[in-house]
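Take a careful look at the sequence and tokenised backbone pasted below. I need to know what the token row says about the fold.
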Amino acid sequence: MAPTMPPGYLSATECYFRNEEAEAIVRTVGYHCEDYSRGMLWFPRKVHVGIRPSIATPFQRTPTTGLGFLDRLPLELLHDVWLRLDMRSLFNLRQVNIRARETVDALNQYQLVVSYGLNLFCALLRTQLASGISLSDFYDALCKKNCALCGEFAGFMSLLTWTRCCFACLEKAPELEVQSLASVRKTFHLRKGQLAQLKSFKTLPGIYWVDSGCVLESVRKSRTTVVSAHQARLLFGQQLHTPAQEQETNWDRRSSILRYTAACELAYYDKSTGKVENGICCAGCQLALEKRIIGSWGEDWSYEARNKSYARDGLLGHFRWCKQAQLLWESSGGGKRRPPELPAFAWRGSFFKDRE
């Protein structure tokens, strides 16, 4: 049953605005929360400084060697082959010679992936999952707008299942649950050969979310081999001879943290417009939480409302009914000044100390 909305959260009537006000409304009441991405697999911008030019730009030299028998193929067919290559092989291919680098860099799909998904690309390489994801897979994910599980705007990828997802599903959906390999082996009594059927990787040291509602993070220095709990259930669930409640006691208690160690932010690229969206949160919902209009009883949905990320059109649709967002807009003088009640979290985009 849907929760009853408390007074002051939703407006009594729909708010209408002129089309020319839309951009100013988005700038005033919308913000991109940096914390969400930094609590997952994330690399500081300084890590990408030396990588970006070399990973997306061909050398300014004329090739002296070719691709051997592959040069006999039409360029269109060669590009089709490159699209089907996994990202690790494509990464290695660019290092063969200048000609190979030129043919890969000429692909529009490759340029878009390394321009807007470089953080995810680095995560795939460092977790050694890149060999299981093709350039076509990556590009398709970049161009998907909505969560594969609930249909809302999705700004994240769960790596083990390669699923475009929203923050709420990443946190709670059973399809995206991540467990340690040791925990899964114990629960399903798996042998070595059976464990090999599960896609796995070793987590990377870093700072990860513990509880997004309370905005808690944890520093993880050790590396844990993790797998998809959903995949394990599908493959080996019939082997269980214990009640579901007893099974749950065997699960690794770090499961909520492990979800974030296997996830990464990914922007959305709109092929029809050429525009990129990173997801926008509503400052009005953050203000409602701070005013205790919502969340006074610790309801999960109130934190989900604060954490929810929208595409531009989705935020404008939400704004029509979000009372606190409307009040922020009214106090901004048509977007000409910062609203006096604009939460610090919204204009900073973060609760935590800058890690750049």
About this structure: Residues 7-32+280-351 form one domain.
